[in-house]
């Protein structure tokens, strides 16, 4: 069995910025992505997206894509620009191994 090395890029962001992050993913060349809704937790900026809050308009989402290192680098450069403009993002990048190389650019 042959395995292929890829990058898993995960971004947690307020719903208001979801479409901008998705556009960045698509413009960077991802072959696909997944959006997880209703992400909530507590951190430096307090509780975000807790049940009973204004979660419908101010909650967080997580946007995830598995891609090759070149595409991941383009995404990270765009995310860095967003962070520099004051947009609050949580970004995770992990090395992953996949079975189907053709599924992930």
The value of Rg in angstroms is 15 Å
End-to-end C-alpha gap: 20 Å
User: Under the CATH scheme, which architecture would be assigned?
Assistant: 2-Layer Sandwich
Residue fraction in strands: 35-45%
Task: Give the helix/strand class.
Answer: alpha+beta
Write down the domain tally.
Answer: 1
Shape label: globular
Mean pLDDT: 90
Strand order of the largest sheet: 2-5-1-6
From the 3D structure, determine the CATH topology. Alpha-Beta Plaits
Largest sheet: 4 strands, antiparallel
Q: What percent of the residues sit in helical stretches (DSSP H or I)?
A: 25-40%
Question: How many strands appear in the DSSP assignment?
Answer: 6
CATH class: Alpha Beta
Given the structure, what is the number of helices?
3
Low-confidence segments, given as residue ranges, are none
Order of helices and strands: EHEEEHEHE
